[in-house]
Amino acid sequence: MMNSTKLHEALKKYFGFEGFKGQQEDIINNICQNKNTFVIMPTGAGKSLCYQLPALVLEGTAIIISPLIALMKNQVDSIRAYTGSEGVAEFLNSSLNKTEVKEVMDNIRKGTTKMVFMAPESLGKQDYIDFLKSVPVSFVAVDEAHCISEWGHDFRPEYRNIRKMIAEIGQIPVIALTATATPKVQLDIVKNLQMGDATLFKSSFNRPNLYYEIRPKVEAVKNIIKFIKDNQGKSGIIYCLSRKKAEELSLVLQANGIKSAPYHAGLDAHVRSKHQDQFLMEEVDVIVATIAFGMGIDKPDVRFVIHYDMPKSIENYYQETGRAGRDGMEGICLAFYSENDIIKLQKFSKDKYIAEKEISNLLLNEVVSYAESAVCRRKQILHYFGEFFNDSQCTNMCDACRYPQEKVQATKEMSTLLEMVKSIGKKFDTQHIMNILMGEETHDLLLYQHDKLPEFGIGKSQDNRFWKSLIKFALLQGFLLKDIENYGLLRLSEEGETFLKSPFIITLPLDHNYETVREDDLLGSQGESADPQLFEMLKELRKKVAKEKKLPPYIIFQDPSLEEMATLYPITQDELTKINGVGPGKAAKYGKPFLELIERYVEENEVERPMDISVIKTTEETLKNKIYIIKNIDRKLPFRDIAKSLNMEYEDLLNDIESIVNSGTKINITYQVNEVFDKEIQHEIIEYFRGSESGDLDAAVEEFEQEFSREDLKLMHIKFIADLGN
Predict the structure, then answer these.
(1) How many Cα atoms sit within 13 Å of 25 on the Cβ side?
(2) What is the mean pLDDT of the chain?
(3) In a 3-state reduction of DSSP, which class is residue 261?
(4) What is the pTM of this model?
């Protein structure tokens, strides 16, 4: 064991800290004794220091195996900054040329370099193995060790070969480190690295400073913008599943005055590096990224992590949310949940091998279960990682505890559930058990003759939501155990047996029903509009103006525009043009009486208007498209040619043209309409729309007995608005 005084002196000298956190000192001592070491420690708990400090004090160079080049760069920069020495940490990877590789090798030979960071692919190269055999190596650290396991959230096949590579270099102690590992993943790591003799150091996965919340994916972009504006100047990460969405969302944020940059594997390496550095240097407040961003990033003051799309596993979710509040201060974790997103994720895995697909679906089912459950979020996360948590200690740091769902008594039903699981043995999953309770005659159920069980159909008086909630609750209470390695099969535990012998009252919180959205489920939402009285007054005024102009009301301003006026209280023409669906033309033509009404209302009711009227503005790319469309309509280009040149569907082009016309911009599309309809038919359709209250196209298709397609009638409807509304 290394002298404690020397370790503390090194800690102060290299890192400026007065003392160790948690188990850091014991872990470092274990490594210094040349023992294999396995560290499971959440993000923000000081995992990196556990290999950095021993690397600095031990003889030789430590090999640090890390999965991402960007992560290596960040870690190397950080160590160099702490120690004040350029050569103390280096990396060997594909980004270096031959001269740079030789320079790194020379530094290692001289003993200047105490840590060399490598990806497993680089470590596998024979030239590197031969070189490392020729120099003293203190130990090998396998960072992000969960990458070894197919059940881990970032599985990397190359990680499977690490043990073989280490053996080629020599008899060297190994330290494996991960911030997320379920019991199954822990076993995989130990088995694959052949370190059954390793000392295990496992810290609690609880991050008490993080607030967890799931929201239905309704007006998500609008709500994200409002949330960021309410947290002006704070650093945050938004995760998306696709590169395209990451870029689109970043553009929308930029258009709304938010300093943002995208980050994904499809960007050029120097662009990725630049965006990461801008985020670290606080030149950019928000990074919109795929999961390629943030692993091990040394930024302690990330104040929020938003999941625009739900991740593929609880491990992903925990790892990504763990990038918030690493300094122990505020960390808000918001995720937007939609069943459609889950269906998309299931489709992604349809072409995988059967076993791989089963694993993906099981991990995804855990995400669905977490999102829909009304039980304490923190309790669910910690249970997933094999840790018990008393939800009374959450202190309202998740939405389930802060805004509790409806609860029902379920003592009798719990006994029924547990008795049934006990009677059928440990061969069946949640869905099979639900099918028995609900009396669903599936193939597997009939095969096992479970339609003959006394419990068959006994649960019909309750709905699926109730039984799903009850099974999740039984798992969290430890009454049931889930064998995730065997595709989620359930079995009764000792605690479940105890409950059957001595039942006690069970109060069950029912799962969230995301098909219906509470008013407060929209961040900052105040229902239909911020001021329902003004909204009604604006609708009445619109009706009056429409009557005078002999136009349907929606031609003047559409409902969403009126709702925004009743929220933001614009009183000048310039402010009115910032309302969605209101361009300069429409503001000039119809705006005056509406602005007068709003100004009068604000004065009479002493309304405090927002200082900054900002709405979701169009991105620069969208603006360019609209200008391009207008120019080509002026040139009388066929619409389908315009759509083709913009690489968009014809219907999407019509939507964009409709948006241009609705905002009050004057364009003449008669040349295109004349290609589709003769003059007499045009007049007939115009008269129909003039008398229509809503301009509903489906109703128009029916009215004309499907003589015209929806697209053609939409074209005619756009002409109607363009000619009469503007």
Answers:
(1) 16
(2) 82
(3) strand
(4) 0.60
Q: Which amino acid is at 648?
A: M
Q: What is the pLDDT of residue 140?
A: 93
Answer yes or no: is pLDDT of 559 > 50.
Answer: yes
Q: In what order do the strands lie in the sheet with 199-202?
A: 89-92, 115-118, 61-65, 137-142, 174-178, 37-40, 199-202
The torsion angle over the Cα atoms of residues 639, 641, 646 and 647, rounded to 10 degrees, is 110
Q: Which domains does the chain have, with CATH numbers?
A: 4-202 (3.40.50.300), 210-353+360-392 (3.40.50.300), 407-509 (1.10.10.10), 532-604 (1.10.150.80), 620-725 (1.10.10.1390)
- The rounded percent of the chain whose pLDDT value lies above 70 is 89
Amino acid at 624: K
**Helix (H/G/I), strand (E/B), else coil: 182:** coil
Tokens of 207: 């991050």
290 φ/ψ angles, rounded to the nearest 5 degrees: -90, 180
A 10 A CB-CB count for 446 gives 11
Per-residue DSSP letter, 398:
B
Mean pLDDT over 529-549 rounds to: 83
Q: What is the C-alpha to C-alpha distance for residues 561 and 598, in angstroms, rounded to an integer?
A: 13
Cα three-residue angle 235-611-259, rounded to 5 degrees: 25
Give the pLDDT confidence score for residue 480 in this predicted structure.
Answer: 87
- H helix or E strand, kind and range, residue 199: strand 199-202
Closest CA to 715 of 664, 665, 651: 651
> Rounded to the nearest 5°, which phi and psi values hold at 137?
-115, 125
The helix/strand/coil state of 241 is coil
pLDDT band at 515 (very low <50, low <70, confident <90, very high): low
Residues 6+ apart with CB under 8 A from 44: 207, 300, 322, 325, 326, 327, 328
Q: Is 550 exposed, middle or buried (0-12, 13-18, 19+ CB in 10 A)?
A: exposed
Collapsing DSSP to helix, strand or coil, 518 comes out as coil
20 is written with which tokens?
A: 């160790």
pLDDT tens for each residue of 71-115: 677 778 778 877 777 788 888 877 788 888 899 899 999 989 999
Q: Which two tokens stand for residue 599?
A: 């100004």
471 contacts 417 by C-beta, under 8 angstroms? yes
DSSP sequence for 26-88: HHHHHHHTT--EEEE--TTS-TTHHHHHHHHHSSSEEEEE-S-HHHHHHHHHHHHHHHT-STT
Give the integer Cα–Cα distance in Å for 689 and 716. 9
The answer to whether residues 438 and 457 touch, using CB atoms and an 8 Å cutoff, is yes
Highest mean pLDDT among 266-275, 392-401, 506-515: 392-401
**Structure-token match 């058990």, residue found:** 433
Q: What are the tokens at 267?
A: 């960007």
